[in-house]
Write a structure and sequence with these properties.
83% helix, mainly alpha, 9 helices
């Protein structure tokens, strides 16, 4: 395999998932699995843009990302609140507080769906078609060996950033940075491994995915804790606010335990 035709075929598959999701969004006929699938697809499309930017001076990823990023963020916001809804029942402790939180989430989810629908309706399909043509031309002209070398060098740089973050002591923003680094690393690696051209060892990739999973669980708890804090802040000083304070504290303790596991896992990267 001399050129990167496989990369374009992969891009086409993710493009088809995206177009199907836009159609489903217009009909309001999508589920949690659709949200997950389209976000994974967009991650890999963005990874493709990154690779082509690294290997071709005339291709600039930022000129092709606007609509994808908007849709990715709106779908992510909706998915975050759907996960908070699921976690609420896992950490349930007070019927009154649970009912109040469910009510708040229901209102937020309704708004999230409207925003996602607007983002999908505003997606410029003709621009995506032109982008797809450029991706095809560049993939045909770019040697696989060059793509793999650039991807490996880029990933090595990201892993070094994760290691530096570990030694410097992590705060919340630092954990979000690590999560973003892992997102692009695993997306890039998947582009090659899906076609039998791994650029990371299985052991290294498993370690990175395990860390990414732990970070995802931490992020989900963080979102629920933030929502509980916003509700609690708007309440008067009474017994109900005290219950919310206890709930928020419970989530914070759980999050601190998750952070301890994360830091331990990061030392093995």
């Amino acid at each position: 395999m001399k050129n990167a035709d496989f990369l374009y075929h992969s891009f086409q598959e993710k493009e088809a998932v995206l177009l199907n999701f836009i159609k489903k969004t217009a009909q309001q006929d999508y589920n949690n699995e659709d949200l997950k699938k389209v976000r994974v697809g967009i991650k890999k499309m963005r990874a493709t843009f990154l690779l082509l930017t690294l290997t071709n001076k005339k291709f600039k990823e930022e000129t092709h990302l606007k609509d994808l990023n908007i849709l990715f963020k709106k779908a992510g916001k909706l998915r975050d609140n759907l996960i908070s809804q699921q976690l609420l029942h896992k950490y349930w402790f007070s019927k009154q507080c649970t009912i109040q939180l469910e009510k708040s989430l229901k209102t937020q989810l309704k708004e999230d769906r409207k925003k996602l629908q607007r983002a999908a309706a505003g997606f410029k399909l003709q621009k995506l078609e032109k982008t797809s043509g450029k991706v095809k031309g560049l993939c045909t002209a770019t040697p696989v060996s060059r793509l793999r070398a650039k991807a490996r060098a880029f990933i090595a740089g990201k892993i070094n950033l994760i290691r530096q973050a570990t030694t410097q002591g992590l705060d919340i923003e630092g954990l979000h940075d690590v999560r973003r680094h892992l997102r692009i690393i695993t997306s890039l690696a998947a582009l090659f491994s899906e076609h039998g051209l791994p650029i990371l060892t299985e052991k290294r990739l498993r370690s990175l995915k395990r860390l990414q999973g732990l970070l995802g669980e931490w992020h989900d708890l963080e979102m629920l804790a933030d929502l509980a804090l916003r509700i609690m802040t708007g309440l008067p000083e009474n017994a109900i606010r005290a219950e919310w304070a206890y709930f928020h504290q419970k989530l914070q303790v759980e999050n601190e335990q998750q952070m301890a596991m994360l830091k331990k896992e990061m030392r093995s990267v």
